[in-house]
Amino acid sequence: xxxxxxxxxxxxxxxxxxxxxxxxxxxxxxxxxxxxxxxxxxxxxxxxxxxxxxxxxxxxxxxxxxxxxxxxxxxxxxxxxxxxxxxxxxxxxxxxxxxxxxxxxxxxxxxxxxxxxxxxxxxxxxxxxxxxxxxxxxxxxxxxxxxxxxxxxxxxxxxxxxxxxxxxxxxxxxxxxxxxxxx
Length: 183
Known about the structure:
The protein is mainly β. It has one domain. 13% of the residues lie in helices and 69% in strands. The chain is built from 2 helices and 9 strands. Strands 1-2-3-5-6-7-8-9 form an 8-stranded antiparallel beta barrel. Strand 7 and strand 8 form a beta hairpin. The radius of gyration is 25 Å and the shape is elongated.
């Protein structure tokens, strides 16, 4: 009987110790640190229409020359964006007025070098950042964390708006992806 008890206790301890591993880090713990942007791309579809005309603008955005950083800290949860990157935008606009169609293709380049700071919060795979706009009002934006590992952070942002004023309806649908590498 003594051997059985010794075996039972030893077996139980082995199971307990072998099943104990380091807990997985939460997204809130993983995101803390400095991240460098390595990719930015997105698409936008905007339409405006009424009984007399319709305008559809589709654009594709791609980034380059990445020297942009975001630093997430905790206690409190703050973020700071510094640096810059370039964005190339190709827009195709189709206008239909009175049955006549006009198509215009435009290409533009922008420098994105606006520093920003504010607070952040994560719930599940959603990250919400809050910052103060130029009018002194707080604005919050929520995006989906597509990937968050020890080395890579990919965020997907969606914009979907639909408004109607005086018989004219405007819709904007956009999807943007930002990928960062931990420094």
